[in-house]
Amino acid sequence: MHTNDMAPASSVHIPSPLVILLAILLLLSTTLADYSTNTSRDALLCLKFHLHGASTAMATWNHTTAPDFCTWHGVSCTRSRPRQPPLVVALDMEAEGLAGEIPPCISNLTSLVRIHLPNNSLSGNIPPELGRISGLRYLNLSFNALSGTIPLSIGTLHNLSSLDLGNNRLSGEIPSRLGSSPALESVSLPNNLLGGEIPQSLANSSSSLTTLLLAQNQLQGFIPDFGKLSRLEMLDLSYNNLVGTVPRSIFNSSALYFLGLANNNLGGTLPSDMGNTLPNIEILMMSDNHFEGDIPASLQNASSMTYIHLGNNSLTGVIPSFSSMPNLKYVMLYSNQLEAGDWTFFSSLANCTQLENLNVDTNNLRGALPEDSITNLPKSLTALTLSSNNISGIIPLEIGNMSNLSMLYLDRNLFMGPIPDTLGQLRNLVVLSLSQNKFTGEIPPSLGSLIQLEELYLQENQLSGSLPESLSSCKNLLALNISCNTIGGSISGHMLARLNSLSWLLDLSHNQLAMSIPQEMGNLINLGSLNISHNNLTGRIPSTLGECVRLESLRLEGNLLQGRIPQSLSGLKGIQQLDFSHNNLSGTIPEFLETFTSLQYLNMSFNNLEGPVPTGGVFANKSGTFVQGNPRLCANVAVEELPMCFASASTKKQKVVIPMMIALSALVALAFILGMFSFWLKRRYTSSERIGHSHMELKRITYGDVNKATNTFSPANLVGSGQFGIVYKGWFDVEDGTVAVKVFKLNQHGALHSFIAECKALQHIRHRNLVKVITACSTYDPVGNEFRALVFEYMSNGSLEDRLHNHQCGGLSLGAVICISVDIACALEYLHNQCIPPVVHCDLKPSNILFDNDDSARICDFGLAKLIHGCSSGGQSGTTSIVGPRGSIGYIPPEYGMGSEISTEGDIYSYGIVLLEMLTRKRPTNEEFSDGLTLPKYVEESLSRTQDILQPSLASETGDQCADHIPNLQECNTFALKDICALRLLKLGLLCSAESPKDRPAMHDVYGEVTEVKEAFFSMDNGSNDLT
């Protein structure tokens, strides 16, 4: 036997320590790999648990059926070394329907380099735990519904190169620590609710920054110096509340190709060498500011320019040449004080072979278009706007060579001569506006070749002849306005039969049309407004008009119509304005008019109607019903100026026959007077029922755009609701930002007319104290119903109504009342005296006065507004007859209830009531104002006791010592000075709200008065005053 065979069993070989250590490390490595894998998987499953509404997108996120999470949809992995566990480095899930809040557990994916989750419905706050992902280089959470502030921890991500949080609902200030990220190349935060100033640290951040987008927020203060950002290519600060001048360093940023500063409160002049210092600039957006001085001639050296938008500033001088800009597509210079000089800028556009839109509306171009001016325009042009420039002379025949034109606006000028036949060659034309000029001759039949035409405006010229039959070929026509000319002949039934596309407006008023109204008028079943008043039309009202069931306004006054009012008109259930006055109609007043719940204005005066006047419906509104001049009418109940229907025979004879004799005599005299002055009258009257273009070209939006912007009209976005519309808060793209979307309730009678009226007024106006319209939407919803909406700037600080009568508010200070008074007066002075034609708002009240981000007051809601002007081109302004009791009870001037014409004095009355309401905090409709006592009378009776009538918040600021007289202010203390200010405002309110329009001051005087009060009030701090 061998000795080794006899060795004990316990003597087993023991591994060396090195082998043991290797085994432990192998076990530990396997354990750590499993731990890392489990951590990543658990973090992804946590993310799936918190994000709902993405069952399809995250269907593969299942560790049972797909244990390898690197194969899950939207997940990207990498391995640092072979056989190492996978690391999640990217999440890419754009537009996957994700909803819910981003959970903090996302930070457990510590190897993430890229997070890309835009265009979803993520909500809640951005988790600050994202700051733990130290290797994160790219973060995009744009186009969601995230709220709260931007976490400070994001500023600690030193590897972050791209940050996009735009189009959310983020608030608070931009973290200053963002500027400490050395790798940062792009920061995009547009269309949020961010406030405060732009951090200086951001301007001093890494020189690698190329993109900074902060548009559509609530940023304020000055623009910081961006001089250190030498690589900056895109800078957009538009639609904020920035003030001051633009730092020179921005104009020296030679790498810039996009510069957006529009819609701020910036001022100063443009550097004369900006075209040299910005050699790569392609898009320049500086509209809606206060820039002044010339457009630099050096701008033509920016040869890459494609878009110039300098509209609505105070720029002066001659428009420079654009000859060195071959890529130019858009030139928007509207609403300045620019001049054409020798029209060199027009000829220079010949080199801009890609030009699509030229808008120089509302400037001082003046003079006549040179003979070759149109010839030099590039054929690529699709929109040409030269409105409101006092351009004279004729339209060159070469206009017909602009074959791509779809919109041509030459209105509100001094053009004369015939309308050129060659316009008929513009087969792509959609809108043609030649109104308010001095065109003569006939309407060219060639216009019938414009088969794409939707809007034709020829009103307020000196056109004659008859309506060309060829217009019947314009089968897409929505609006036709030829009012205030001398068009004769008859209305062609054949033409009407083929123009059944008309849905907005047909206005042939104030012409010399004769014969009867054709039965084919009933074919216009989609028409909203028909005005054929003040012509020489005879015969009966056609019964087929009852088939125009969408009519909201029907005006037939001032003709020679006779016979009974047809029973078929009972089908006009949505009618709001109905005027049959000054005709020869007979018979009784139809009872169905009582049932029209939407009817607000009915004028049947000066006809031969007889029998009882109904008492229900619109007839109960004395200020909205007019039946005078019908001597055979009577009343079943006591009504002033009408005899009782059950009176005795002798009494009846006295009350009917005698007035008839008087009326007949008056009619004979009236006929003679009308014969003498009919032409003059026709040129005085006007009817401006039209919808035109705005000062800037509005981009088209669809129902889908509105639906998305309002989150499918979510109740959470509901701002308010009125008679004709519902207002939502919405979020559009970078260009539009946070907006107010007014969706018209077209099932409500009158809503369509309100939409048209608001469009009509807003086309002419642009002012800092008016809520700005961004665009309009006129289309159909997915089920085929009509859809109309207007998109406005969003006013985030409520209304004057809220501040006056919300009991949670403590009332207005005197300084606030003064500032609001100045803002409103400034807006009305612009509407009345600077707009051509003047605009009357017709519904000024506290709920229509909103406050923007810097608490400036702005007037809104032009649904009842009216343009006023004379029919004769270039003549003196006049007023059109009021078409209903425009306004709100308590704020309507008393003369409107008597059937007086609309006038600027009506707005002044409403302004006076609003001013008194601010000072007293009493509504004009309070129950205490009855039995003849009104708010103005209440103030007038108590004027010597100002403390009794001022609202408490104002009374505490003032004293009684200056109520009876205005002393030497050097001897008055601060209380006395404030009392004088309040007293002057009270007296101004009384002057404005005088019962007679003749006793009211003009708006420019009102504006001067409140401005003087404001200057004196705010001079108290420096010891000066000038109220005496």
TrEMBL record:
Residues 1-33 form the signal peptide. It is a single-pass type I membrane protein; Single-pass membrane protein. ATP binds at K742. Pfam families: LRR_1, LRR_8, LRRNT_2, Pkinase. It is an enzyme of class 2 (transferase). The keyword Cell wall biogenesis/degradation does not apply. One of its GO terms (cellular component) is plasma membrane. SMART domains: LRR_TYP, S_TKc. Residues 713-1018 form the Protein kinase domain. It is found in: Cell membrane; Endoplasmic reticulum membrane. The chain crosses the membrane at residues 656-681. Keywords: ATP-binding, Cell membrane, Glycoprotein, Kinase, Leucine-rich repeat, Membrane, Nucleotide-binding, Phosphoprotein, Receptor, Repeat, Serine/threonine-protein kinase, Signal, Transferase, Transmembrane, Transmembrane helix. The keyword Protease does not apply. Its EC number is 2.7.11.1. GO terms for molecular function: ATP binding; protein serine/threonine kinase activity. It catalyses: L-threonyl-[protein] + ATP = O-phospho-L-threonyl-[protein] + ADP + H(+); L-seryl-[protein] + ATP = O-phospho-L-seryl-[protein] + ADP + H(+). Belongs to the protein kinase superfamily. Ser/Thr protein kinase family. Receptor kinase that detects X.oryzae pv. oryzae protein Ax21 to promote innate immunity. Following X.oryzae pv. oryzae protein Ax21 detection, undergoes cleavage, releasing the processed protein kinase Xa21 chain. This is Receptor kinase-like protein Xa21. It comes from Triticum aestivum (Wheat). The gene is LOC123050987.
